[in-house]
Design a protein that fits this description.
Structural class: alpha+beta
Radius of gyration: 27 Å
Strand order of the largest sheet: 10-9-17-20
Distance between the termini: 19 Å
């Protein structure tokens, strides 16, 4: 019965983590480029109560008896399905149609990746730099920050589906600036490490980031200027998952209550 107390406790702890994860999904329902996360569970070790043996009559009992010791969280997996496109006017707002991700140069000089295409043009020493809302430079297909001349009017800037920047000349004809917004893909997006601010970091589980511009074997993604990719969280699904998690938490709580009552009855038998 003491074993059942701990087994029920592991279930309550696991479901509490599940509720925390669902709450985080619901909290980020309006976060640009957010990817919903799903909780994964696995059983704990099994304890052998009885091994294969024989009965008093000498008959074989080929099946032993094992009791599970509960459950634990094994991982929280990000689901990289496409979010809906939300119209957001502005020359530096982009939504990705496909599996690609933007490359972002972190403050430490390392490259991080994101699906959040809500960018701005920041005035710096070198000119107008395309950055995230936190001021981190967005990288081109060459792996370098995208910098424009200071006298350019960003509202006149257009970006093609392939990510190439165009600007009108003196005659009003749009010409390429020979700069293209870079997009990268990884073999296993669920293996990326989440570091906050909608940024992801490469890990051995995710595989190396592959540039779409340099790899013909990759299915190319497209950019939609004036749009943002919304969260892929499905509110109805998350609410159902929340109800299921609450009921599972209550059932595991009931296991602990029942085990406690059985222990009380056992104590009363001694009197």
């Amino acid at each position: 019965m003491v074993r059942s107390l701990w087994t029920g406790a592991t279930g309550m702890i696991a479901q509490q983590l599940n509720v925390d994860n669902i709450s985080n999904n619901l909290a980020n329902v309006n976060t640009t480029g957010y990817k919903a996360e799903a909780m994964e569970f696995k059983s704990l070790l099994y304890q052998t109560i009885q091994t294969k043996t024989t009965t008093a009559n000498g008959e074989n009992k080929p099946i032993g008896a094992e009791v599970g010791l509960g459950v634990r969280n094994s991982s929280i997996t990000s689901i990289f399905t496409q979010g809906s496109f939300l119209e957001q006017a502005g020359p530096a707002n982009f939504a990705i149609d496909g599996q690609g991700m933007f490359g972002i140069q972190g403050a430490d000089g390392n490259t991080y990746y994101t699906r959040n295409g809500h960018f701005v043009f920041a005035i710096g020493e070198e000119g107008l730099t395309l950055t995230t809302s936190d001021g981190l430079p967005v990288l081109s297909t060459e792996g370098e920050p995208i910098v424009l001349e200071e006298d350019m009017v960003v509202d006149k800037l257009t970006v093609s589906k392939e990510g190439t920047l165009f600007y009108p000349n003196e005659k009003g004809t749009y010409e390429s600036l020979d700069m293209t917004i870079g997009l990268w893909q990884v073999s296993n997006p669920a293996g990326l490490s989440k570091i906050g601010d909608s940024l992801y970091e490469i890990t051995p589980a995710s595989g190396e980031a592959l540039s779409e511009a340099d790899n013909d074997n990759l299915t190319k993604s497209g950019l939609k200027q004036g749009y943002l990719e919304g969260s892929n969280v499905q509110i109805a699904d998350e609410m159902v998952n929340l109800i299921v998690a609450q009921r599972a938490y209550e059932m595991n709580s009931k296991v602990i209550t029942t085990s406690d009552e059985m222990l009380q009855q056992a104590n009363q038998l001694k009197r």
